[in-house]
Amino acid sequence: MPVKKPAPTRKSSDSVAPQNRSTSRKKDLAPALSLPAKPETLTEADRIAAKQRDISVSEFFLKNRHLLGFDNPKKALLTTIKEAVDNSLDACEEAHLLPEILIEVKQIQEDRFIVIVEDNGPGVVKEQIPKIFGKLLYGSKFHSMKQSRGQQGIGISAAGMYGQLTTGTPTKITSRISSRKPAHYFEIHIDTAKNLPTIVKDEVVDWKPPHGTRVEIELEGKYQKGRHSVEDYVRQTVIANPHATITYLLPTGEREAYKAASRQFPITPREIKPHPHGIELGILMKMLKSTTSRRVKAFLSTDFARVSSAVATNILKTAGISDAARPKDIAHNEADKLYRAINATKLMKPPTDCLSPIGENALLQGIKKNVEADFYTAITRPPAVYRGNPFQIEVAIAYGGKLPAEEFVDLMRFANRVPLLYQQSACAISKSVLQTSWRNYGIDQSKGALPSGPILMAVHMASVWVPFTSESKEAVASYPEIIHEIKLALQECGRRLDAFIRKGRREAEARRKKDYIKSYLPHIGIGLREILSFKEKDEKKILDLLTDILERSRE
């Protein structure tokens, strides 16, 4: 029988069905086609990367609202009022208007309030209202080198965001820029995911004031009197701003009216250019890339303060850079040499017309109108500089009178005319007071403590950029230059106070002695009459003569 031949053995590639061969080819081509990897092939790094996303500045501050001063209901109420009043004062002063501000706090529930702040300022242009009140980090003062209360463009929009978070209600704004223009009313929410305003309502309304702005925020808060209260803030604000008239309507229905202690308008600060000694290398490199100057010499003399054409030539010569070099062509190494040459060059201090100090007379007027004391003194120090930023320190002291004698000094801290009520121990002002030896000036002071006695101290720092320790603007950073200037001002006021206290003690001692002598005059008269055989009428004349001499010596 014929033997059947076995079937030929197929190769592995031949044994694959046509559809399987197609699948195989797809697998081979997968890397080239960038097909998505299977879930099981993802690494831990891939999973972590998938979670990364942008963080809106509004979201950040919403989660970290304590950084802005909204960490408890009592402080939140105060911070909301403070931010609104700061905006009102800045707006009035920019428009050269004496501020007239209404503050009203309405309690609608145990822990819910409506805060209303209205001013007579220039008003806000309609198109700008949503951005100013509904967007964080939006403003005109961050890049401006002149003194102002607001700096970061956060305050009033953050207050509205806190109100939205705690009550769900929008910020309500009414503003008018002229008697010939209508008033506009807005209700605004903040889209925290995008840091953009959401307009809930936009309409024209009837509003009597010819110009000004009214802000209304409903929020969760807590009202208490005493230290760190709204009343305390208002009292300090009128002391630092004696040109302002403020009316405060309390939740209890009471009304407190503070008329301006001075009709003199504050000095209007002028914007200046940055001083070269106040910038870092990275900022210098950024300025070189963004300048409109075509030559590096022109860049130095036009983009900075206190750099003349001759000084710019010396700086470039020291750095080994040509006068004709283009700023945008300056490489990192050349920029580093330029930076070192700038810091090695002696320059004039920055101009100080960018500052607007309260002034000794105005500061005394503000204190005298609100504090009853026996002695007042104030001093404004000459301008100084830290990190290229000009600043000025002012100190005022009130002593005696109705000030409490058994307590620590009533220390009022101000920065650009704004009261600083919290974080006292972290502030350069408090540290300067602590480091001053008040015993040398006749004031009691325990080791490591503030001085005690019937004293009020007001310390004000005016600067184009106050170095606050946090975004809530409650304490000044402890730069050595700032502490040095504060201590010098405190010591000068301390010497004046010491002279007053010593004079008072001398006068008190003289009165004591004269009263002692006066008590013995009748006995002297009797003795003289007995020795010299005077009559009673002569004794009376002698006593009248001695009394008159004693009184004249007292005068």
Description:
It is a single chain. By secondary structure, the protein is an alpha+beta fold. It folds into 3 domains: 60-258, Heat Shock Protein 90, CATH 3.30.565.10; 276-344, Helicase, Ruva Protein, domain 3 (Orthogonal Bundle), CATH 1.10.8; 351-555, Ribosomal Protein S5, domain 2. 39% of the residues lie in helices and 19% in strands. The protein has helices spanning 18-33, 44-51, 57-63, 73-94, 129-134, 155-167, 230-240, 281-290, 296-303, 309-319, 332-344, 360-370, 428-435, 480-532, 536-554; strands spanning 100-109, 112-119, 171-176, 183-191, 196-205, 212-220, 245-249, 255-258, 375-380, 384-386, 389-399, 410-415, 418-420, 444-445, 451-452, 455-463. Strands 5-4-3-6-2-1-7-8 form an 8-stranded mixed sheet. Strands 9, 10, 11, 12, 13 and 16 form a 6-stranded mixed sheet that branches. Helix 13 packs across helix 14 (480-532). The longest helix is centred in the last third of the chain and has 53 residues, at 480-532. The radius of gyration is 36 Å and the shape is globular.
